[in-house]
Amino acid sequence: MNRITNNELYNLDYTLAKIICKYLKAFKKLKRKTHPVDITRKEWEQELNFMIKTFEKIIRNFEKDAENNIKIEEGLFLFAGRFLELWD
Fold first, then answer.
1. What is the pLDDT of residue 23?
2. Which of 42, 43, 55, 83 could form a disulfide linkage to 21, CB 3.0–4.6 angstroms apart?
3. CA distance 29 to 16
4. What is the C-alpha to C-alpha distance for residues 13 and 11, in angstroms, rounded to an integer?
5. CB 79 within 8 A of CB 51
6. How does DSSP classify residue 85?
7. How far apart are CA 42 and CA 34, in angstroms?
8. Could you report the per-residue pLDDT of 22-65, keeping only the tens digit for each?
9. H or E segment at 40?
């Protein structure tokens, strides 16, 4: 079993962002048959791209300015709102 390091816990936002980003990218590459019923397939792809970019910004430790914080918050809100849609 893998041991969780203190560094992973001290930077849990970074640790989780890496994991989530990796899996969102794999999910996006998957030959999916479904998408949320309230949007089109194209809109779903755009939303997935936005979520991926959000986690990439967190991983890169983007500048902590207001504009980037707003975009990150929007992406995290979208991720939370679509969390139960991440299946096929």
1. 98
2. 55
3. 20
4. 5
5. yes
6. G
7. 12
8. 999 999 999 999 999 999 999 999 999 999 999 999 998 866 67
9. none
Tokens representing 35 are 């998408």
SS3 60: coil
Q: Which residues contact 58 (CB under 8 A, 6 or more apart)?
A: 13, 14, 17, 72
CA 4 – CA 73 distance, rounded (Å): 27
- Whether this model's pTM surpasses 0.85: yes
Task: Give dist(CA 25, CA 6) in Å, integer.
Answer: 27
d(CA 74, CA 88) in angstroms, rounded, equals 24
DSSP state of 65: -
Taking the CB of residue 24, how many other CB atoms lie within 10 A of it?
A: 20
Structure-token match 């918050």, residue found: 73
Amino acid in position 4: I
